[in-house]
Amino acid sequence: MIPSASAATAFSRAKRLLAGVLILVFLGGCVHRIDIQQGNFLEAKDLDRVAVGMTRIQVRALLGTPMVADPFETWRWDYVYYLKKGRLKKPQYRQFTVYFEEDKVVRIDRSDKSPEQKAESATASAATQT
């Protein structure tokens, strides 16, 4: 039995409709997500230049105004950076904290250092305090 022309036309329309629906479903998942960047982007070379004993003015001249400077706790400045690229990539988060005592840097915490580098800086910080 040979299918009639109207049945073939209806089948062709159904195929086109199904193809169109599938294309819309796949394209719906391809929405562009913009990058979200917040905070202070600081280069490692600038962070390496901050040292124990520097004044607040020197730190601000080197790194700029901190992202978080609590008016009630002036002994701590936090430089925070967050970057989320696209939809599926893991966000980058870095934090650099400077602690002051009598307007001088007494301690520095970095989230971008390896555990060995953090141990070395803690040892150096303890040696300068004694």
Structure description:
It is built from four helices and four strands, in the order αβααβββα. With 130 residues, the chain is α+β, with helices and mostly antiparallel strands. It has a four-stranded antiparallel β-sheet.
Describe this structure in a few short sentences:
The protein has 130 residues and is α+β, with helices and mostly antiparallel strands. Helices cover 41% and strands 23% of the residues.
Task: Give the strand order, joined by hyphens, for the main sheet.
Answer: 1-2-3-4
Reported for the largest beta sheet, the result is: 4 strands, antiparallel
Shape: rod-shaped
Please identify the structural class as seen in this structure: alpha+beta
Our count of helices gives 4
Q: What proportion of the residues form beta strands (DSSP E)? A: 15-25%
Distance between the termini: 100 Å
Q: Tally the beta strands.
A: 4
Relative helix content: 40-55%
**pLDDT < 50 stretches:** none
For the CA atoms, what is the radius of gyration? 29 Å
Q: Which whole number gives the mean pLDDT?
A: 78
What is the chain-wise order of helices and strands? HEHHEEEH
